[in-house]
Amino acid sequence: ANNTVFNSALANTNAYIATTAATERSSLANTNAYIATTAAGSGKVLQVVHVDGPGSTVSKTGAGSLTVVSAAITPSATDSKIMVYGTAYASGSGGSNTWLQIQIFRGASNLRNGPYQGISLANQGAALATNHLDSPSTTSETTYHVNIERGSSGTNGWDASASRSSITLMEIAA
């Protein structure tokens, strides 16, 4: 079968969807996301939602996860896929050796843990990114979140600066 593959590099992660047709490639930044489509129209992007955030600085002290930016999408069909791209920028506060991880949530469900990034000095920043291909099986509004989790022990914290993170949701036809 003829395969159509769209290869997007986004940030040290991989996501896959199957299909049929021709081949395209485009680079965005050190990650691979593959979307395959059929000549009948599956695999087409039906809608895109993008949100930059947070509106103001988000801070967390100690271990745990906290939402940095969120977006909602209403799928047009129950068999649609939602491609979620998340980026976050955070800096350590209150000490050194802070390990941060980006996460993607649908509602309260953790869908993806991205790579950890170590911050060796207070006020040093880290850019984090990941993606996830979701099958929400609904036509109801669905909210996705980009979270940052501090995985290292101790009381050091982190700050996610205003307007330095984003989430992009793409509905993909089945």
Uncertain spans: 1-39
Taken from the alpha-carbon principal axes, the silhouette is elongated
**What portion of residues belong to β-strands?**
over 45%
Query: Class by helix and strand content?
Result: mainly beta
Q: Helix amount, in percent?
A: under 10%
Order of H and E elements:
EEEEEEEEEEEEEE
Largest sheet: 6 strands, antiparallel
N/C terminus separation = 18 Å
The radius of gyration is 17 Å
- Total of helices: 0
| Count of beta strands | 14
Mean pLDDT rating: 77
Task: Describe, in plain words, how this protein is organized in 3D.
- With about 170 residues, this protein is mainly beta.
- It contains no helices and 14 strands.
- Strands 5, 6, 8, 11, 13 and 14 form a six-stranded antiparallel β-sheet that branches. The protein has a four-stranded mixed β-sheet with strand order 2-4-1-3, with no helix packed on it. A four-stranded antiparallel β-sheet has the order 7-12-9-10, with no helix packed on it.
- Strand 9 and strand 10 form a beta hairpin.
- The radius of gyration is 17 Å and the shape is elongated.
- The two termini are about 20 Å apart.
